[in-house]
Protein: Hydroxymethylbilane synthase
Organism: Niabella digestorum
Amino acid sequence: MQTNHIRIGTRDSQLAVWQASLVKRLLEQNGHKAELVYIKSEGDIDLTTPLYAMGVQGVFTRSLDIALLNNKIDIAVHSMKDVPVQLPQGIVQAAVLKRASHRDILVHAGRLSEDTIRILKAGTPSEEAFIIATSSIRRKAQWLHRYPNTTIENLRGNVNTRLQKVAQSQWHGAIFAAAGLERISLRPEESLDLDWMLPAPAQGAIMVVSQADNNYALEACAPLNDVPTAVCVKAERDFLTALMGGCSTPISALAQMKEDKILFKGNIVTPDGKEKVEVEKIFSLQEATQAGTIAATELLKYGGSNIVNKLSDNPH
């Protein structure tokens, strides 16, 4: 059932609420009535088999997808890097908002020397024995490729919890997405951009999804779509798809639109960081729809297939 009142589904974390509130403001600026609907975590919801059969997946998106399919909400707002490349049947992309920072950053507790900070910012290889926290296999793989003597500590929880753990730890630092901390004004001064680390596909972008037949919601969200961002993140997600990857695989990609070109970088790294294959290409805007697939094909041709096969044999 469609109404002129848009129910926006969101998880209840500080970052998720910030993102959903942004969408609510944008819709209201365009004359639409909107409200936030907080969806409990998937553990609190009866997950029925038919919904799984429809392709519902994604640790951070599943409960919102189910709420959409059950018509409890009209749209859902996600960090796009968390959204599986294959959307569930009946759910479609309604808008991609203008991207914030795509960068990964290292948050430290103020214990790094100036020399170490220079090394880490530049990505200069070093034999120093670091202790770094992250739960991302992609970040772990890229970090170990540069700094093989590192001990990786697992770090989970929401942004606030993870920042607290860093402050209380003896780690050299922990890796975060810049956009997540900057959006809720929690980026510490003791942090540095890791420009050498390629991000997750679509990192820094916010995605709005809706039911495919909810015409009112789709039309309301259409003006929120930022075309350059949508084009670039599609290329990155196509790259991921072509490499058969998901958000738990060590695959990274970044597409940036510069004038009439798309600059594309992508890589795949073994989880232990020992092997890495990368690709860098420039595409015309006319080639944009195929950019990610073309880049992935080239990466596979020049050694990436060996890593993909290893990941298939030893899934994480």
Remarks:
- The mean pLDDT is 90.
- The longest helix spans residues 291-313.
- Residues 143 and 273 are 7 Å apart (CA to CA).
